[in-house]
Amino acid sequence: MKFGGTSVGTPERIKSVASLITESGEPTFVVLSAMAGTTNSLIEISNYLYRKNPEGANEVINTLERKYMQHVEELYSTDAYRATMREFMQNEFSHLRSYTKDIFTSFEEKEVVAQGEIISTNMMVAYLQEQGVKAVLLPALDFMRTDKNAEPDLQYTKEKLADIMADNEGNQVYLTQGFICRNAYGETDNLQRGGSDFTASLIGVAIGAEEIQIWTDIDGMHNNDPRFVQNTDAIHQLNFEEAAELAYFGAKILHPTCVQPAKYAGIPVRLKNTMAPNADGTTIDNVLIKGKIKAVAAKDNITAIKIKSSRMLLATGFLRKVFEIFESYQTPIDMVATSEVGVSMSIDNVHRLNNIVDELKKYGTVTVDSDMCIVCVVGDLDWSNLGFESIVLEAMKDIPVRMISYGGSNYNISFLIKESDKQRALQSLSDHLFAK
Q1: Which pLDDT band, with edges at 50, 70 and 90, does 359 fall under?
Q2: What is the pLDDT of residue 342?
Q3: Is the pLDDT at 310 greater than 80, yes or no?
Q4: Is the pLDDT of residue 436 over 70?
Q5: CA 304, 308, 313: angle at the middle one, nearest 5?
Q6: Helix locations, 131-194, DSSP H
């Protein structure tokens, strides 16, 4: 079970999460994020220290310490645990203050930012123990490691964790920190993409879990964006490929890379809501329901680039030259459409846009459209399923479409449209695809 920052954002929420953890009575491995807002404060402290402003850093540290001391008073009911946790907090915040006295680099920043998860897990394990639960804290830095390519070292994690679990047999709850790890050189680091969800997925695979549960503050993935569309529903089941498409195209509940380990190990991932724990949520597994459209999602802040060149006609190497320009400026491409005399691409990172356009002008006439968005329809969209394309296109008939991508994947059809048309497009697709 993995719980995000809002799920453990207050002492009351920690108590309700503790009851969820222990409800089944089965041995459970729990991954916790930092309490909501804490990581932002730690980044703020780091920013002050980078700018050689220890007074500013100390002010944020003092504010954070007062907040956590208040949490200690509210969370624990016995004097013994309150005293223990007060001492723990004093040591933690003294440790943070020690960074205001020395040189501050990115190494120290990673140490500082890691303290959020270290504090939340220590608070939770102490609370569980106070309630009489057999709970043990297994520090992530003891077994979670990345390799020299900054990718998780799953074999190392498996071996280390097997030994640690064997040494701690007989507990009901095993608790660790999400997001943080060591790198190949033994320094404190983090998993970056997907953070705590990635931790949960890796641990689930390492221990052979029956199920990996990601608990957030919404009840699973929805079949459309509830901020823009009325009457959306939580999706009961998704294939891993469908979930990855949705996550990439704007469903913020899940990072696409973080469920890859679970996918390859065949372990289902369930998205659950801590605010409504009895809701079914969304199960993600390797099952594909044939002939079913599952959801619609949108990705904002897209820029379209079109390069037109009569010299391109039948010219070998043209596309390679174009793509190498994007590669040299480390800018990924979302969608591509080609014709005999041109190619259109979409990107969501415009930091190097001017450089890219200048280079592309060597090969043809370049036009740029900004303020675009990609709307994608996700489900079993294999080309042998007749009629789905026409239903989707019928829904989009009143929306000006700049580009269409179909066939690159069996799981989506994507449309590039103006951001100003997004809400109309999402609502129309919902009305056509999911109307009851």
Answers
A1: very high
A2: 86
A3: no
A4: no
A5: 135
A6: 154-167
State the pLDDT at residue 318: 84
Name the 3-class secondary structure at 403. Answer: strand
Name the pLDDT band for 216 (thresholds 50, 70, 90).
Answer: confident
Residue owning tokens 């979930």: 243
Q: Count Cβ atoms within 10 A of the Cβ of residue 291 and give its class: 0-12 exposed, 13-18 middle, 19 or more buried.
A: middle
pLDDT for residue 409: 83
Question: Looking up tokens 């079914």, which residue turns up?
Answer: 280
Other CB atoms within 10 A of residue 83 CB: 12
- Order the strands of the 212-216 sheet from edge to edge: 135-137, 173-177, 28-32, 2-3, 212-216, 269-273, 282-285, 237-239
H helix and E strand count, the chain: 13, 16
DSSP 419: G
* DSSP state, residue 312: G
Structure token digits, residue 235 = 């999706």
HSE, side-chain direction, 13 A CA sphere, residue 29: 26
Contacts of 73 by beta carbon, 8 Å cutoff, 6+ apart: 82
Q: Is 295 left (phi over 0), alpha (psi -120 to 50) or beta?
A: beta
